[in-house]
Design goal:
Helix content: 40-55%
Number of helices: 28
Structural class: mainly alpha
CATH topology of the domain at 1-108: Serine Threonine Protein Phosphatase 5, Tetratricopeptide repeat
Largest sheet: none
Distance between the termini: 84 Å
Order of helices and strands: HHHHHHHHHHHHHHHHHHHHHHHHHHHH
């Protein structure tokens, strides 16, 4: 019923069609409604959504038709399929005269709605401050709960998408509810307070109002998230500043999520959330306020690893030919990714400059240097080494960055060697970088490694030398090169 049926009704009338009474009511055609009633039309007739004639008249704000329908026996508390009464239908349009009339004729502030939502919840959801004040004056309970545990204070902050609100009406309703005694620390079924929802929605003024009246800034919901977690995730710098100023725990860890916002390992801090979501202004603020730069979540991810991952995922080679749900034009899409890539690169530089550990390992044991070598990113390699990256760090397979470089790039291999990388490290299979380069037929890399002292006769765990590897793959140029260096099978 709350979908606009006026356009359809107008077309029907223009075509001379027989119009149902509920359509005439929605059009505001008092005389047609009156004539239909006199002809025996049912004043409690329902449309396919279960809405009565009174729902339609109330929704459109036709006071005279509402009065006529009530006088002719319309049920003021009839509910549609969504358990909305006519009183609820009048709220989004702020039809005060209709509300006054309905309540004077016995309309209830609550219905038997399955979600237990009340008229005040509806007014709050729609940001209707004056309606909320009117309902409160009529006895509406400011702390009543729906089935999700939402109070009207939760409702105004939890459903802004219903009206495309810019935040002003939200804050006005919040202020009104607080003034009338709303419990600012009430929690819903997810453990969220109104402050959680305000922070998540980025409603700075609402956050300010709530913290000013004593809302617990350290309250945790069922996921272990504080309002600061949600403000950081949503990217609201002002809300983050307000919460920190009021004593929010900047390094609080959550309990993780499973299949809600998205599956997420436990131990997320506000900083980890900010970097995950690319809200770099928030991340920089948190860092400036003392956030732990080397914190790890349950999966071992640190701020630096997350920033590096974000940088890699938004690099140009990775996004060419890909898709983005909101950006269809290739040039615009590439520009979007390039902007994010720069933001993540700047975050990497800032984290390293401030002393973040340059050697954290991901789930495969790779350090940032391993990944930089994999991406052939010389600038990042130089940055990491300058900031203390271990050039000989091993991953879970025992491979160093030089093993990776020897598989792909002479320039990167040379760069690592120039920074002191060991020339003959062994991985878990006993293979050295020379084994890797020989297997792949990279004669230029083989020559470089040999010139730096690599052992041409070193054997892996299977007893194979680099020459054995080259022969197996038929790498003729490499075979000749190794034999010139007295390599043996």
């Amino acid at each position: 019923m709350r979908r606009d049926g006026g356009a359809l009704a107008n077309r029907l009338v223009a075509a001379g069609a027989e119009v149902p009474i509920y359509m005439a009511a929605r059009l505001g055609d008092l005389e047609r409604v009156r004539a239909l009633i006199e002809s025996g039309a049912n004043v409690n007739a329902r449309d396919m959504d279960g809405s009565t004639v009174l729902h339609h008249a109330a929704s459109a704000g036709w006071t005279d038709i509402v009065r006529l329908l009530i006088e002719r026996g319309a049920d003021v508390n009839a509910t549609d399929k969504e358990q909305w009464a006519p009183l609820y239908s009048a709220i989004p349009g702020d039809h005060r005269d209709v509300l006054e009339l309905l309540m004077a004729r016995g309309a209830l502030l609550t219905t038997d709605a399955s979600n237990k939502s009340t008229a005040l919840h509806v007014a709050a959801e729609w940001g209707a401050e004056e309606v909320a004040e009117f309902l409160i004056a009529k006895g509406a309970d400011v702390n009543v709960r729906d089935k999700e545990g939402f109070t009207p204070l939760h409702a105004v902050l939890g459903w802004p998408h219903l009206r495309g609100d810019d935040g002003n009406s939200v804050a006005n309703v919040v202020e009104s509810l607080i003034r009338h005694g709303a419990d600012v620390n009430a929690t819903d079924t997810h453990g969220d307070t109104a402050l959680h929802l305000a922070a998540n929605g980025g409603y700075t003024r609402a956050v300010e109002l709530l913290v000013a009246c004593g809302t617990d800034v350290k309250a945790m919901n069922t996921h272990g998230e504080t309002p600061l977690h949600l403000a950081a995730r949503s990217g609201c710098v002002q809300a983050v500043e307000l919460l920190i100023a009021k004593g929010a725990d900047i390094n609080a860890k959550d309990k993780g999520r499973l299949g809600y916002y998205r599956s997420m390992p436990a131990g997320q801090t506000p900083l980890l959330w900010a970097i995950r979501n690319g809200t770099m202004d928030v991340a920089k603020l948190l860092i400036a306020k003392g956030a732990d730069l080397n914190v790890r979540d349950a999966s071992g991810m640190t701020p630096l690893l997350l920033a590096l991952r974000g940088e890699r995922e938004n690099s140009v080679p990775r996004v060419i030919g890909g898709k983005h749900s909101d950006i269809e034009d290739d040039d615009e899409r590439m520009a979007w990714h390039a902007t994010r890539h720069r933001a993540y690169r700047e975050m990497v530089i800032e984290l390293l400059a401030l002393g973040a550990d340059p050697n954290p390992k991901d789930e495969e044991g790779n350090t940032p240097l391993h990944n930089a070598v994999h991406d052939a990113d010389k600038e990042r390699i130089e940055l990491l080494i300058t900031k203390g990256a271990d050039v000989d760090a091993e991953n879970a397979r025992g491979a160093t960055a030089l093993h990776q470089a020897a598989c792909e790039s002479k320039d990167i291999t040379e760069l690592l060697l120039s920074h002191g990388a060991a020339v003959d490290p062994r991985d878990r299979q006993g293979d050295t970088p020379l084994h890797e380069a020989s297997l792949r037929g990279h004669a230029d890399i083989v020559a470089l490694l040999l010139s730096k002292g690599a052992d041409p006769n070193i054997k892996n765990s299977a007893g194979q030398t680099p020459l054995d590897r080259a022969i197996r793959r038929g790498r003729t140029e490499v075979i000749d090169l190794l034999r010139k260096h007295e390599a043996r099978e």
